[in-house]
């Protein structure tokens, strides 16, 4: 039986475009950490409680995003700045066409990756600068940050061992690269503990889901059924 999700009211999320009635959740972490699994578990749980739910991902949450995803993950090798700009382009389009309209309508939007991935991968591991990549993506999204960012923390070697598909461009990077990404994700979480929840992704999917549920409950918009 799915756990009950009370429809507790909360203050609306805000951004530069004004008040947004919904709730925005991002799932972050290294490859193989279980982000897609947790996104889908959240979708099932929230939908069962009567919430309007939008499950999405970056890159690739829109038609244009799917073209950009193929280019950035499966196309020719890219220099770091081009890579960063392609991710920011996808994010700007994703937020404008999908995320903000859904939040304005009161939906719970759950995305597999958001701007913290760019800060960790391109800003830190690609050495383009944490502040520069953050500023670029805040500009692209008009300052929209998630109400909750769940960092699924996992040793990169464990994540690679979970892989069941051919690695993409970023997955093919060295273990040192992925260790740097992990360390920077944890640094971001330490800097913004009010927004981040760090969960041990080596735990079972059910244990991870329970921890995410507990943190998310007070943030949910009114409107779900019991």
TrEMBL record:
Q: Which PROSITE patterns match?
A: THYMIDYLATE_KINASE (PS01331)
Q: Which reaction does it catalyse?
A: dTMP + ATP = dTDP + ADP
Q: Which UniProt keywords apply?
A: ATP-binding, Kinase, Nucleotide biosynthesis, Nucleotide-binding, Transferase
Record EC number: 2.7.4.9
- Is Transport included in the keywords of this UniProt record? no
Which part of the chain is the Thymidylate kinase-like domain? 27-211
In terms of InterPro entries, this protein maps to: P-loop_NTPase, Thymidylate_kin-like_dom, Thymidylate_kin_CS, Thymidylate_kinase
Q: Quick check: keyword Lipid biosynthesis in the entry?
A: no
In this chain, ATP is annotated as bound at 29-36
Entries under HAMAP family matching the protein: Thymidylate_kinase
What job does this protein perform? Phosphorylation of dTMP to form dTDP in both de novo and salvage pathways of dTTP synthesis.
Q: Matching PANTHER family, A to Z?
A: THYMIDYLATE KINASE, UMP-CMP KINASE 2, MITOCHONDRIAL
By sequence similarity, the record places it as follows: Belongs to the thymidylate kinase family.
Q: What is the designated name of this protein?
A: Thymidylate kinase
The species this protein was found in = Georgenia halophila
């Amino acid at each position: 039986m799915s756990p009950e999700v009370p429809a507790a009211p909360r203050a609306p999320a805000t951004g530069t475009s004004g008040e947004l009635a919904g709730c925005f959740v991002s799932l972050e972490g290294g490859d193989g950490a279980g982000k897609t699994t947790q996104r889908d578990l959240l979708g099932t749980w929230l939908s069962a409680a009567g919430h309007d739910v939008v499950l999405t991902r970056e890159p690739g949450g829109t038609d244009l995003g799917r073209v950009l995803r193929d280019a950035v993950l499966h196309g020719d090798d890219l220099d770091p700045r081009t890579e960063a700009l392609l991710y920011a382009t996808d994010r700007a389009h994703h937020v404008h066409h999908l995320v903000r309209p859904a939040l304005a309508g009161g939906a719970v939007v759950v995305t597999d990756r958001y701007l913290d991935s760019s800060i960790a991968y391109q800003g830190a591991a690609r050495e383009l600068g944490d502040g520069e990549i953050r500023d670029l993506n805040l500009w692209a999204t008009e300052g929209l940050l998630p109400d909750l960012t769940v960092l699924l923390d996992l040793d990169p070697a464990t994540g690679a061992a979970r892989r069941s598909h051919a690695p993409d461009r970023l997955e093919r990077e060295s273990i040192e690269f992925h260790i740097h990404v992990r360390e920077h994700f944890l640094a971001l979480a330490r800097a913004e503990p009010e927004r981040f929840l760090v969960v041990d992704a080596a735990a079972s999917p059910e244990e991870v889901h329970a921890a995410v549920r507990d943190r998310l409950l007070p943030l949910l918009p009114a409107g779900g059924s019991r």
